[in-house]
Design goal:
2 domains, 5-stranded parallel β-sheet, 29% helix
């Protein structure tokens, strides 16, 4: 039975359940302050699973989710939602976290690594080259094209950061974009042209049926020679990491930076962890930040209480 507002009084228990992966006391403190009129519980405390109407969580076991028989909305505590779209997950309204603070961190991460390889900051200064002190051989920003593979809220934020510093910005997405500060590429027909036009490609695509395995050996061959590949979306976009490694070994791709891997986490002996041209970071390019995330989720809960729709809601068909 699904209850609407008028029936809800009959169900005793707390309607909003929070399941943070860490710092439960801080999260409940933040939400209690922002939502003083709501009763909240932090998992695994749950006085009545049937009364749970809204769930705020990063992920949760399907067997536990099945006990929330009147669940209406899930708020993902991260930007990605693929963990909520697996078979057996409840088919309820799903709200993504679109936090500008997180997107800003991801932009800083991308700027760091792209400029690291663009300007060869990783090389030790060679004392034998003192006669060339002060000579720059790296391309400057306006001669360097950064491509965003995925151009939603996060891709735009990252693209804007590069654009602001004078880089050429290309963007690839399913439908393209009209923004006049980017060169837009749309759909699979234009993916080859996009890949071939970028000195660095930053992937921010979500994991969906359409993006999983998108970057095959054939696609890596379409990257510009010497390009840098930065993956801060989902590891599954790389069809097989040995193909990425092969492209680097063959001297085609110049470098790769992986904040996400396939599988994730990687096995201890995964080649990507030991390759001199690959940098791996442990899925930390943009973290959920309690202060801003709690505020955005609380605003959405207030919207729902006023009878308005929360946003951004996930299009289950599209997978994000
Ligand atoms: C992290 O990957 C997130 O989806 O927030």
């Amino acid at each position: 039975m699904r209850v609407d507002g008028s029936d809800r009084g009959m169900l005793r228990g707390v309607t909003i359940l929070i399941n943070p992966w860490a710092d439960p006391d801080q999260w409940i403190g933040a939400f209690s302050e922002l939502l003083p009129n709501e009763e909240l519980e932090v998992w695994p405390d749950c006085s009545n699973p049937e009364a749970v109407e809204m769930l705020i969580a990063w992920r949760m076991k399907r067997s536990d989710l099945a006990t929330f028989t009147n669940l209406d909305t899930i708020f993902s505590m991260g930007a990605g939602v693929d963990q909520w779209l697996r078979e057996g997950s409840p088919d309820v309204r799903l709200v993504r976290l679109a936090d500008p603070a997180m997107a800003g961190e991801m932009a800083a991460y991308a700027l760091h690594w792209v400029s690291h390889y663009q300007r060869a900051f990783g090389q030790r200064y060679d004392p034998a080259s003192l006669d060339t002190w002060g000579i720059n051989t790296a391309p400057v920003a306006r001669e360097y094209t950064v491509g965003l593979l995925g151009f939603g809220q996060i891709g735009r934020r990252i693209g804007a950061a590069f654009n602001d510093l004078g880089y050429e910005v290309n963007a690839w997405s399913r439908g393209g974009t009209d923004d006049d500060w980017v060169t837009s590429f749309a759909g699979l027909d234009e993916l080859e042209a996009f890949l071939g036009s970028c000195d660095a490609v930053v992937n921010v695509l979500p994991n969906t049926a359409e993006t999983a395995g998108l970057l095959t050996a054939e696609r890596f061959a379409q990257f510009k020679a010497g390009a840098t590949f930065v993956n801060i979306g989902r590891g599954t976009v790389v069809s097989d990491e040995t193909e990425l490694v092969a492209s680097l070994d063959a001297g085609h791709l110049g470098a790769a930076v992986l904040d996400v891997t396939n599988p994730e986490p990687p096995l201890a002996d995964a080649p990507v962890l030991h390759h001199p041209k690959i940098r791996v970071t442990p899925h930390i390019s943009g973290m959920t930040q309690m202060a801003t995330a709690a505020e955005l989720i609380a605003e959405n809960i207030q919207r729902i209480r006023r009878g308005e729709a929360p946003f951004p809601t996930v299009d289950r068909g599209a997978g994000y």
